[in-house]
Amino acid sequence: MQLGMAMWQYLLIGLIGGNALFIGLGGIVHWWYYVRNRDNSQRWKIQPERFLAKRLDREAMWLGIFNYNLATVVMATLAWGVFEHGWSRLYFDFAEHGWDYTVLSLFLCWLFIEAAAYYMHAGGHLPWFYKRFHYIHHRYSTPTFWTISAMHPLEWIAHASYIALPAFIIPMHIGVYMSVVAMTFILGYWDHCGIKFPRIPLHGSNRFHDDHHKYFHVNFGFTCNLFDRIHDTARREGHHYDELTFNGGQGIVRKPEALGERAMGPALKY
Ligand SMILES: [Zn+2]
Ligand SMILES: [Zn+2]
Question: Which range marks the domain in which residue 62 is found?
Answer without folding.
Answer: 7-37+44-259
